[in-house]
Amino acid sequence: MLGSGTSAGVPRVGNDWGACDPDDPRNRRTRVSIIVEGADGARLLVDTSTDLRQQLLANEIDRIDAVFWTHDHADHCHGIDDLRALRYGRSGPLPGFASDETVRRLRQRFGYIFSGQYGYPTIVSVDTLDRLRMFAGIRIDTCQMPHGPIESTAYRFDQDGKSIGYATDFSEICDGIVDLFWDIDILVVDCLRREPHPTHANLAMALQLGERCRAHKIVLTHLDKSLDYRSLSDEVPDNVLVGYDGMVLDA
């Protein structure tokens, strides 16, 4: 888990920690992003958060094999320029994947990333998820989730009988999400705060999704300043973990 925070991070600008204990390093949250690593070492990056450079340095990651986007909101894609350093030494651009609409919006906003410019090479060769079923020996399944007025992509990664799901930025539990994550080993799930929110899952919705799809382990992410790591850890069931930056999970 590269980042576990909401769009403003924790602390917010102004050194605003909210209810979070500033002395607990697990409360210092950069914007959400994860790396999924396969059995043979293949690394799949999900989202290019605005804190991507810092996250890659903190986790000593200097190589990825592909990048996937959930949607085009700033906290999930505006670190895209930091992929330039991961392009160095490669014979071609990084493979990238997203939904049709997200691909369209990313191309519109970051054209130089996908087509090169002024003699600089193409950084990412982007494609839609329509025909993707496997990458580097990892099976990849997706569905679209309601995220307020837009949609966000949920991902499921399977290899060697082990499974990890990623569902960030959703506001409603639909049947497609439950089907995608059915009987999953680890589910990393959106949990903005305790109170309901118009575009994000709150704590109750995050736990409900885990229960409905019979997830073996639930990991909460996209956490805001109202959710202190220790207090929330004491509150949730035994199969639920509170995510934090740098957390490593083995399926």
From TrEMBL:
Q: What is this protein called?
A: Putative hydrolase
Q: Which GO terms describe its molecular function?
A: hydrolase activity
Q: Name one Pfam family in it.
A: Lactamase_B_2
Residues in domain Metallo-beta-lactamase? 30-222
Report the InterPro entries cross-referenced here. Metallo-B-lactamas, RibonucZ/Hydroxyglut_hydro
Per the record, the domain of life is Bacteria
Can you name the source organism?
Caenibius tardaugens NBRC 16725
Q: Where is this region: Disordered?
A: 1-24
